[in-house]
């Protein structure tokens, strides 16, 4: 009995040691899949696995610090949680790394638990196999076979047209033969008395001729006038740019706010073309395209090549993570270009008129509503791979907007500033409830847009 109890206790101790050892091993090794999520959330702004970004590549970092500095995972835990404190303690290897990377201070991550850090290190040691990359958007199966079908249809149409043309020629020849056979001496005499010149025809039917000429003159004048009125209107214009920039990827897929790049649209008259430094705010650490969306006809290599054009323009050396000082100007082609005699202030529309414009547009387009004021004029830019002029941008187009857009009277400034005008319009237009549109507050005055 005593022997059994003794062996029982030894068995429990062995099982306990085995479980604790397993737990210890798991805690040290970590979970690479969870580590991948934590790595993407906390580390990718400055690090990549296989190349230097702002900081060094992190693949195999556990083995590397052991070889270079003779330190272990515990040191990495201290470095990740508070590298500043570790350097302040006089740690030699920590200060060597700080000097090596131009004294660029790493962020502290006290919020990460030991388990989180173990998971991240497990991911850097043994990253899981990447999931298959989504292929470029392809046409549906029905469309894939459309090309051969179209060729067959085209051939049938061409053959049919040739057959019809041949039939018509044959009919004309036969008719001519019949006419010659049927002509009598009387018909010959009549043909000699028929009108043979345009002047004779005009003399006979001059009233009809004058009427037709008048109609033709009116149509020609209208055509010239219509052509003149559309000079400078380039709706649908979408030029090729020196660097391919997809608004669908940036504003659509990645939800980047318009004003992050076009910051002066809110605070200035002109919405400027962003400088290349604005691009580098993100692309300093994004050297290749890993998004899910790929435009038909494009591939990952194409997007990576366009990013390299940004680096060439700014003189950025991705390997050394520093600027070379050799820059190249980018000659963008301007799309929206108002004439010099037209005054248009972006900030006035983006700030003061934001809600009023959105409400007016959505009221007129219930099936095509917008959520950002920019889309009222520039169209749904977040769906465009290549930006184009979405509207006419003519004087009549602007006037129509001013006549139909109701001023936002819930705005505290408008409510106070136009208080008397609002009361006056309520009496003047009782059926409309005294609604104030932009034209009622001077939106049609010439001097507002032409100065």
Automatic annotation (TrEMBL):
Pfam entry (one): Cytochrom_C
Residues making up the signal peptide according to the UniProt record: 1-25
Residue ranges constituting the Cytochrome c domain according to the UniProt record: 30-128
TM helices/strands, residue ranges: 155-173, 212-233
MF terms (GO), sorted A to Z: electron transfer activity; heme binding; metal ion binding
Bias type Low complexity, positions: 134-147
InterPro entries to which the protein is assigned, alphabetical: Cyt_c-like_dom (IPR009056), Cyt_c-like_dom_sf (IPR036909), Multihaem_cyt_sf (IPR036280)
Alphabetic keyword roster: Heme, Iron, Membrane, Metal-binding, Signal, Transmembrane, Transmembrane helix
Source organism, top-level taxon: Bacteria
PANTHER family: CYTOCHROME C7-LIKE DOMAIN-CONTAINING PROTEIN, LIPOPROTEIN CYTOCHROME C
Protein name in UniProt: Quinol:cytochrome C oxidoreductase
Species, as recorded: Chryseobacterium soli
């Amino acid at each position: 009995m005593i022997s059994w109890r003794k062996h029982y206790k030894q068995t429990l101790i062995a099982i306990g040691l085995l479980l604790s050892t397993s737990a210890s091993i798991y805690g040290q090794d970590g979970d690479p899949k969870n580590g991948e999520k934590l790595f993407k959330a906390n580390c990718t702004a400055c690090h990549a696995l296989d190349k230097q970004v702002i900081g060094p590549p992190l693949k195999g970092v556990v083995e590397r610090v052991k070889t270079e500095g003779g330190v272990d995972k515990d040191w990495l835990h201290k470095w990740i949680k508070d590298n500043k404190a570790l350097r302040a303690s006089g740690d030699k290897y920590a200060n060597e790394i700080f000097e090596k990377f131009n004294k660029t201070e790493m962020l502290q991550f006290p919020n990460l638990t030991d388990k989180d850090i173990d998971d991240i290190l497990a991911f850097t040691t043994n990253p899981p196999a990447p999931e298959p990359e989504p292929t470029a958007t392809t046409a549906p199966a029905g469309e894939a076979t459309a090309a051969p079908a179209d060729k067959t249809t085209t051939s049938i149409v061409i053959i049919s047209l040739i057959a019809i043309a041949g039939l018509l020629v044959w009919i004309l020849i036969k008719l001519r033969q019949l006419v010659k056979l049927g002509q009598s001496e009387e018909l010959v005499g009549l043909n000699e008395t028929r009108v043979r010149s345009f002047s004779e025809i005009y003399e006979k039917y001059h009233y009809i001729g004058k009427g037709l000429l008048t109609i033709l003159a009116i149509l020609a004048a209208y055509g010239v006038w219509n052509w003149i009125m559309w000079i400078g209107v380039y709706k649908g214009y979408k030029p090729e740019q020196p660097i391919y920039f997809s608004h669908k990827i940036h504003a659509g897929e990645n939800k980047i706010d318009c004003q992050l790049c076009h910051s002066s649209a809110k605070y200035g008259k002109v919405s400027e073309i962003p400088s290349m430094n604005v691009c580098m705010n993100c692309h300093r650490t994004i050297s290749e395209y890993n998004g899910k969306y790929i435009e038909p006809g494009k591939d990952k290599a194409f997007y990576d090549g366009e990013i390299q054009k940004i680096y060439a323009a700014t003189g950025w050396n991705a390997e050394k993570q520093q600027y070379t000082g050799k820059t190249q100007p980018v000659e963008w082609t301007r799309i929206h270009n108002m004439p010099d005699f037209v005054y248009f202030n972006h900030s006035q529309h983006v700030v003061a008129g934001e809600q009023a414009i959105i409400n007016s547009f959505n009221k007129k387009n219930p099936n095509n509503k917008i959520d950002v004021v920019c889309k009222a004029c520039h169209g749904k830019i977040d769906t465009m791979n290549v930006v184009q002029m979405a509207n006419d941008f003519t004087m009549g187009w602007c006037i129509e907007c001013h006549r139909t857009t109701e001023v936002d009277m819930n705005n505290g400034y408008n409510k106070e500033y136009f208080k008397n005008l609002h009361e006056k319009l309520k009496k003047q237009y009782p059926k409309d409830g005294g609604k104030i549109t932009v034209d009622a507050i001077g939106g049609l005055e010439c001097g507002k847009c032409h100065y």
